[in-house]
């Protein structure tokens, strides 16, 4: 597996663990596709192998999946079997496997209880905290639910999934492809907190929100221009409270190999110039 194929990040915690952080594995997606007439072999083993390959390469000792571990919202027998197979393959390779519940993870607790593993932990969608080796408090959640106020107050960085960010890339021949991306949003913590909790929470300074792409290889994601310049109330994302459409210059976009593409305001300008028939490089 090449680095370019990986859709996650690693973080060293102060207790000596190296955490592999991914989101939105959507195990069992092929079950839903099969109902629609799209016949795809089971992908559980492939997704598990992608996780294990990168963990070995990165030296990761623990794993956190930040929501939407499974795809079927109301779990059925077939998707439950896929989830159990996936967890069977990965759980023995890590000291800890933490699963944060996402909006697709209904009945995940029942699936886990039928195949309990001592090192697999299920956390509600408000997430959990780890402290990085460099002393930062990282709040890991799915992104569909508000975090606990005390966690938000203590957090330096929020790492989330849920929105599946991707970007459209066009080459000189006109070919267009969509690539998953990692997005960093810098926000005023006071404004963010007041918007989210509808009251002053006493937060100060700035904080970063890291948005991870979907990990499932059958999915690419949603164009960043359909996420960050808009108020996605219907998506139920905490990014709504960050009012990202007002701070495009504070939003950085990276390919999954960490190639820096630019801030959203510059990318928006480039897209506008392309739509007008070409690039104007005089401002570079």
From TrEMBL:
Organism encoding this protein: Vulcanisaeta distributa (strain DSM 14429 / JCM 11212 / NBRC 100878 / IC-017)
Domain Calcineurin-like phosphoesterase: 20-166
InterPro entries listed in its UniProt record: Calcineurin-like_PHP_lpxH (IPR024654), Metallo-depent_PP-like (IPR029052), Pesterase_MJ0037-like (IPR024173)
Protein name listed in UniProt: Metallophosphoesterase
Gene3D superfamilies: 3.60.21.10
Pfam families: Metallophos_2
